[in-house]
């Protein structure tokens, strides 16, 4: 189950909800995003986290393009196993 992805998407949505309003002018949205970037935010895990302006802008664009699902972090893909055998100890 991807509970952590859901919690992260909810965290992101909570931050950008107001800034993602399509009725806002670019200047109004920019002011909201700058205000988000100027402070720390409590994460779902309880720690504090800074969010950069470019990151908040990207989350707004993702949300506008793909909705809530687009705010979920991508799943990591596991690559093929290494071709070489591990080094043997000397």
Describe the 3D structure:
With 90 residues, the protein is mainly alpha-helical. It has one domain (3-71). It is built from 3 helices and 2 strands. It has a two-stranded antiparallel sheet. Strand 1 (40-42) and strand 2 (48-50) form a beta hairpin. Helix 1 crosses helix 3. It starts with a helix and ends in a 24-residue tail after the last helix. The model has no long low-confidence stretch (mean pLDDT 89).
Short key terms for the protein model shown above:
44% helix; 3 helices; two-stranded antiparallel sheet; 90 residues; mainly alpha
Let me know the average pLDDT.
89
Total number of β-strand segments? 2
The class by helix and strand makeup works out as mainly alpha
**Ends distance:** 42 Å
Helix percent band: 40-55%
Concise synopsis of the structure shown:
The protein has 90 residues and is mainly α. The chain is built from 3 helices and 2 strands; from the N terminus they run H-H-E-E-H.
